Structure formats: C-alpha cells, structure tokens
Amino acid sequence: MSDKKRLDLEYSQIESDKMRINVGPQHPSTHGVLRLEVEVDGEIVTEVIPHLGYLHRSFEKHCEKMTYPQVMPYIDRLDYISAMNNEWPYVMALEKLMDIKVPEKVDYIRVILAELNRIANHQIAVATFGLDAGAFTPFLFFFRDREYILWILEKMSGARLLYNYFRVGGLAADVYPGFKEDCLNIVKQVRKTNAEVMDLLIYNSIFIKRSANVGILRPDVAINFACSGPVLRGSGVKYDLRKDEPYSIYDRFDFDIPVGKGEVGVVGDCWDRNMVRVQEMEQSCRIIEQAIAQMPMEGDVSALVPKRIKPPKGEVYMRAENPKGDLGFYIVSNGTDKPERLKARGASFVNLSVIPEISKGYMFADLILILGSIDIVLGEVDR
Amino acid sequence: MLANEIFDRLKTEFGDAILAFDDTQPTDPFIMVQTDKVFDVCYSLRDNDEFQFDYLMCLTGMDLGENVGVVYHLYSMKFKHKVVLKVVAPKADPKVPSVEMLWKTADWHEREAYDLMGVQFEGHRNLIRILCPYDWEGHPLRKDYETPEFYHGMKVSY
C-alpha cells in the first residue's frame, strides 16, 4: 500500500462515537515538537499514533559529509539535556576502533561529569513529571539545583548545555582549581533537595493517586520493545550497562541499581519509573564521591589526543548507559577521516515507541502523565 | 555463548542459508545471512533456549553501492551475549523480511530504514515513513540521493 493511501485510510476510520484529538506539535506537555494523534472514546484513550519528524535535521546524512571531530557538536544536540553523556559512547567507539587507551585521570573526569549530567537530567525529568501531574514547587527546587550543576559543567567546558568537551583519547581541557570542592558541595545540595522532594512530591498522596497504577509496562513487553534506562528498570528488570557490561572504569565503584518494586501500585507504573530516577540521583552522588576520592590530580588530559582522527577500516557498535537509556553508535569507517555510515540508536526514540502500547485504556489526562514518565527528548527522537 | 559457537549452531540448523562469518572487526564479529531466511534465523535466535536473544539493540540500514544492507545487533538479557547479523538486497529490488513480529522495537527501526534508506521490509504491518513527511519522495540516506530543488512546487532555498 502506498503512503498516500494509508493516510486516507487513517482518517476514514473515524467512527461516530469516537473522537480524534490532535496533541502537539506545539504543546507544553509533549516535551518538544511531538505530535500525537489520539483516538478517544469519551475520556478513555483507545488509540495513540505518534507522528514524528518535526525536529528531523538529517543528523546521519550530515555525519557522512563531516570529519569525525566535526560530528561532535551535532552529537551534543541529540539529547541536549545530557550532552556530556551523549559524547561518551561516540568517543568510546572511536577509541575502540583506533585502539587508544585513555589516561586514568581522563576516565575519572568523564565519570564525574557524566554522573553530574545524569543528575541534571533526572532533575529535569522528575521536575517536569511533577509539572505534568500539577505540582509546581518541586520544579523550582530542581531547577535551582540544576543551575549549580550547569555552572560546574560551564566552568569545565565553557558552555552551559552543549559542551563539545570530550575528545577522542582525552578531553578538551583540564579541571579547574576547586573542582573537587564544587562537586562535593553539589552532592550535598542534591541530597538535601531530594529529601525535601521525597516529602513534597514523591510520597504526596495526591501525586500517588495520580501516578500509581497508571501506564503499567510489563517487563516482558519492555524487553520486547527494547526499552532501556529508567523505563526498563521501572518495570523491575535489573539491567544497567554500568554494571552488566562495565565500560570505562565503572567496575571500580560501589553502587546499586534501583528497580521498580511496585511500592504504592503495580510494578512498572509511572510512579515506579519516577521513583527509579530519584533513587538513581542518590547512586550518582555515591559514584561522584568515590570518584572524587580516587581521582589522580597529575597528568595531562589531552596528551593522547591524535592530531588527525583517521580510524582504520572496520565497524564498531558502542553503547553507554545514558540518563534516558542506552545510546548506541554504529560507526562504519572506510579508512578516511569521514564516517561511511553513522547510526545513532537513541534511547528516547526506542522508549517512545512503547507509548501506543501502554497508554490504551487510560484517561486522556493520564496519557500526558505516561508521556512524561517516559522522559523523552525530541532531539534524540527525530535526529 | 561466543559468536563463533552461535555461527556453528546456526550452520548446522540452517546450512547454506548462513553465508559467512567475519571476526576481523574490532568489536563484534558478524554473521552474513541469506536474505530470504533472515526471519527464520531470527526466530530461532529469539526462541531457542540456548540463544534467547530477546533484545534487539539496533537495526541499521546501509548503502553498499549496488546493494542495500540491513544490520541487526542482538543481545540476550539472560546470557548477556551478543551477535550481529547482516543481510544484503539489490537496490533494484530491496526486499528484506521484516522481524517486526519478533521484536516490537523493530517496528520503528524498520520504518526508519525504509524511510531513509528505502529497504522494503516484507511482512511489516505498517511500513510508512517516520522521520520525513509522509509525502516525501526518495530515500535521503542513499549515497546517490539528490536534494530536490522543489518541495510541493515551492523553490527550496539553501
């Protein structure tokens, strides 16, 4: 069937007692330019059809025309909330392809910055999830703290959100004096705010009534849809790349993998996914503290950065645990300084595909909540 | 289970449909599969107790000059092993069996590969464009794609 026919069919299916509502692309609760075509029966959602592509900017086509270092700023713009994490699998893939072993100090700085960025991402996710449910105050708390984290990242890289800081074999710049103290202060602040938010939002009975038992994602469905990150762990699957396939130096740290337990509802509901994010912030704090204690201060972070990045012929698939899930890069090199093919497997893209499955049968207002609990960023969905 | 053991098992089960094995890659070795048998091979990889590849990490469409290719990155949550499958199909008739029935995640990945690379996935229940507009012409990620000068009769400025 041709594309055009399919479109006509889509609109001819409208029945008299059902209604089709258009959500987005410009709507505050879709977290970006996502358009959802929703079929409702009264107040009950019967079908959800996501229409993507409003932020499509031909990322993969552009990559084939650019040299490897030039690709880096575009990678920041995939998941622009956590750009440090995005850059990591890309440089790891190239390091694997070129057989470069990075210095220990670089690994520690990468871990600290990635975990700081993970906290910043989860703060946005939990804050906007609360906003979707109607809680405004935690949003302000989290955004205040997030700004402190962004200050550290800005001092390190010179940019507030889109860093372009990782290099193949190293980093763009060394740590500034007082970096360790700043990190330890922020960890303290994050813990304080989390304790406040636990009372204010997470165990608030209105919030529990709103988000528990909503959008239940069963573990087998989550695996079949290849969900990852807090969405998968919220369904009770104990799977974290930092533990299961330790990359970089994650095997040196002691931390737990929080999973959804169905504390106030069923395992895999919106509350569980949200709770996993709050608990992950605490685990990230633990990793940062250990990394700060172990980190060597001497050494040059950009000593091993090659002048010209020209990987040998071959292909590599590398993935890393991003705040939103697994971000994978499949890089096919043809021996020149430009990639033959670069595919980004975005976590948001895959996690979003589960929306039509888990939002059927709930109220229309719950659909917004389910979408918020998936924590998508459209830069990564549309690429 | 290592990739060469998986290759041996598949070779005994499917015979000539398993074409080649390449372990010269810096990361994961890959297995070439005959195009029209890829659904059966994937079905066996998913449901066989020894393999249990229940997690499709990534599905990529490739432009290989004369042919288009599809690369499957599989992972098993239980055994934590991986395998990479590859198929090719000629550009004149780019038909590849769909694995959307096996892993639901392949639904959007295959739609993307169809949209950008023009791979026709046979058996996919809703193979429409996903990133480009529904009425877009051509497949932008192909190497021989030419950027159109007009869109709906309007001159596109660069």
Q: How do the helices and strands line up, and which of them pair or pack?
A:
The complex is a heterodimer of chains A (383) and B (158).
Chain A: H1 3-12, E1 19-23, E2 35-41, E3 44-51, H2 59-63, H3 68-76, H4 83-98, H5 104-133, H6 137-157, E4 166-167, E5 170-171, H7 179-202, H8 205-211, H9 219-224, H10 230-234, H11 241-244, H12 270-294, E6 314-322, E7 325-333, E8 339-345, H13 347-352, H14 355-358, H15 364-374, H16 378-382
Antiparallel strand pairs in A: 1-2, 2-3, 4-5, 6-7, 7-8
Chain B: H1 3-14, E1 18-22, E2 30-33, H2 38-47, E3 55-64, E4 67-75, E5 82-90, E6 95-97, H3 106-117, E7 120-122, E8 150-151, E9 154-155
CATH topology of chain B: Beta Polymerase, domain 2
Q: SS-based structural class of chain A?
A: alpha+beta
**CATH architecture label name of chain B:** 2-Layer Sandwich
Q: Given the structure, what is the number of helices of chain B?
A: 3
Task: Identify the notable features of this structure and list them briefly.
heterodimer; A: alpha+beta; Cytochrome-c3 Hydrogenase, chain B; 2 domains; 3-stranded antiparallel β-sheet; disordered N terminus; B: 158 residues; Beta Polymerase, domain 2; 9 strands; 30% strand
